Amino acid sequence: MSGLIPPGVPSPTELSDAELEQRLEARRKWLGETAFAYDPPLEPVRGDGVYLYDSAGQRYLDMHSNVPSVGHGHPEVVSAIAAQAATLNTHSRHLNNAVEAYAARLVGLFPAPLGGLIMTCSGSEANDLALRVARLVTGRQGIIVTSGARHGSTAMTAEISPGLNQPLPAHVRTIPAPNPRLAGADALGSWFAARVREEAAILNKTGAGFAALVLDSAFAFDGVFTDPPGFLVEAVEAARQAGGLFIADEVQAGFGRTGELWGFSRHGVVPDVVTLGKPMGNGYPVGGVVMRAEHLARLNASAPYFSGCGGSPVAAAAGMAVLDVIEAEKLVRNAGRSGELLRKGLRRLAKSFPRVAAVRGAGLLFGVDMVSPKTGAPDPEAAGQAINALRRNFILAGRAAPTSHILQLRPPLSISAEQVAQFLEGFSGVLATLA
Amino acid sequence: MSGLIPPGVPSPTELSDAELEQRLEARRKWLGETAFAYDPPLEPVRGDGVYLYDSAGQRYLDMHSNVPSVGHGHPEVVSAIAAQAATLNTHSRHLNNAVEAYAARLVGLFPAPLGGLIMTCSGSEANDLALRVARLVTGRQGIIVTSGARHGSTAMTAEISPGLNQPLPAHVRTIPAPNPRLAGADALGSWFAARVREEAAILNKTGAGFAALVLDSAFAFDGVFTDPPGFLVEAVEAARQAGGLFIADEVQAGFGRTGELWGFSRHGVVPDVVTLGKPMGNGYPVGGVVMRAEHLARLNASAPYFSGCGGSPVAAAAGMAVLDVIEAEKLVRNAGRSGELLRKGLRRLAKSFPRVAAVRGAGLLFGVDMVSPKTGAPDPEAAGQAINALRRNFILAGRAAPTSHILQLRPPLSISAEQVAQFLEGFSGVLATLA
């Protein structure tokens, strides 16, 4: 990449040190300390498609924003939200065509026996509710999650989020992420299932009992683990044999991210409960729990769920517009095509640069392991340098838990072949400076 | 009211029985059973100010929608949401003027030592986080709530919501709502404080310990208890003496509802934590936790909170527009003035109709006890008949927990003197048919 800006040289559009300190001081006062995405923090002022812009008009290629999944400020989604908000926005205790039509369409996108929907205000609320469903249906409390997972910010979902580095209660057991390096690709499925079986047995021996296996079906926070397709089959069987449900957390993987509409489809499994979040409304706060009709009836009979904003007509309008755009712009297919270019390009870079030890992912979700070229050990510092160097070169990437040596890429699904090439050129240049 | 439509006669704009059954069948299929606000359910298609409209163009005076607190489809709020959504909507790990300016303005509306804000996607998430703060700060787990309270729909907030009629865990203790009939107005404060002291002592004797007293400062779900002003002082002191925090849940009472900006102001108390929800974004899903700066620092140091949608620029824009409208339209003052007309009118009706045993409330939040005129016993059936008869006369009211004999009134804060008179005339007519 010509004109690459090396580490340590500020981009021309950054705030001065004094200006920045002033902004941080004011922000700290009212909002406390922020874990900013970049150092120094970015101040985007406008978004459009796959780009963010700062106040100087500098354009950044956004390789990390999975919430505006169909593109920043997508005009159709914005129009749908604005039109419905101007017309009607009520709670869900009234008949409403927008809500009913969205529910029918969304649920219709899932395989049987998934058949019922409850809408929430966030993916956290969706996972929180999914846990209640699993505990209600099984009469047991114990949950199994992967060791780097994050499933939400409510108290109950933080409890099943080892990636937040909080102590876990006894009824939450962790298994390692399904890293082919631990077991080999061929044996990964049975190895991962064995881990589920072990932990379920421990939970079933204690008073808690085993209620559910909760997995992000693309393991985004663990570092992205999507291959080989189908490796989840045995783990899901193991969970059911131990009397638990399989909850697929599709907050990261859902709505086309992996090149299929749902992350679990890649594995040919049908979850008992599916949770939806972020990309569902392209930034409008909405989440959902899709479950079997009998589980929904059970929940309603026991503890009817009501949310003042969940299931509002505006949430439904936002969700419907997102589905419309995904279809009209063929974004699932684009995620597959652009994702394939990205995958091939990343693999090429991995061959050229020993800094890159592994590239994993599907569709437009990738984890890139950054290591010391000398020892091959995970190198979180290099990953941090890489994302800040990328940012200085107007490319935005992120990091995945747990040890932060894994770059995470998940651009809006509308990214083009040219934009993928732009990223690869920039990343190549950054890797050259790190080598 | 001339032309009053008696119970049993359908309004001309209702769906036919067959059409209704078809709609319900489809809705049931995808969304499960709905606890509709009215029987038969209403299908509003448009909202404007204090009115909702059905598909036949029939106008309903909305005396119950507290979410669109500054009015249905308020154009300034809708414009602010649309403009910001079209411009930029990101997570909160970037610098953002809209978010920082809103935080500064909102926190500035609270008395010291309240000084820090975390934004969430809903009031449920706000209360969920407030519980974590209280438990973190006190090192104890036990919570005291009133017996009809509802504080949210997450697992943790449902646990402190006896109004949902779920079994409560041992570390959640209930006290009766502060009904002056139980203790007399003069002794209410000390009587209520004694209840707090008793339950805190029980929690402190057990392993759980007493972490927080959580109160909706207007007790909306308990049936609305706002008087006499100041009665909360002793209870808050009792909570602090027992080592717990006082969390004011302002999801119902906040943003002008009681004729003051915050419900707790009526009592001259300063909470340790304040939670915000529904009216904060006039229907845009947003919530917030306002707390002492040192508690925010403590939370950040222990378990940094992050929400993909909480604290987004669009949430901030919606919140800012709501504050602008409240100021520009002097809605807090209007809540006081129109509320006073409503209060006087309701008291007059109570004198004329023995069906109405009590009228409680402040600003634009009222609870109206419906009883049997013969025995004086609570009459939930009459309350149900009243809200459905009001609805047939194009007035929308609601019911409060716990025994559902209490009508709940909480119209948008922009309601005029004429609209209050329209309601009182309609309610008078309905009471005449029930008498």
Provide an overview of this structure:
Two copies of one chain form a homodimer. By secondary structure, chain A is an alpha/beta fold. Chain A folds into two domains: 43-70 and 330-434, Alpha-Beta Complex (Aspartate Aminotransferase, domain 1); 75-328, Aspartate Aminotransferase, domain 2, CATH 3.40.640.10. The first copy, chain A, is built from 13 helices and 15 strands. Chain A has helices at residues 17-31, 75-87, 97-107, 123-138, 155-159, 180-183, 188-205, 233-241, 293-302, 313-328, 331-352, 380-392, 417-434; strands at 44-48, 51-54, 59-62, 114-120, 142-146, 172-175, 210-216, 245-249, 273-276, 287-292, 356-362, 365-370, 395-396, 398-400, 406-409. In chain A, the strands form three sheets. Chain A has a seven-stranded mixed sheet, sandwiched between helices. In chain A, strands 1-2-3-13 form a four-stranded mixed sheet. Chain A has a four-stranded antiparallel sheet with strand order 11-12-15-14. In chain A, strand 1 and strand 2 (51-54) form a beta hairpin. In chain A, helix 2 runs antiparallel to helix 10, helix 7 (188-205) packs parallel to helix 8 and helix 11 (331-352) runs parallel beside helix 13 (417-434). The longest helix of chain A is centred in the C-terminal third of the chain and has 22 residues, at 331-352. Chain A is globular. Chain A starts with 16 loop residues before the first helix and ends with a helix. At the A-B interface, helix 1, strand 1, helix 2, helix 3 and strand 4 of A face helix 1, strand 1, helix 2, helix 3 and strand 4 of B.
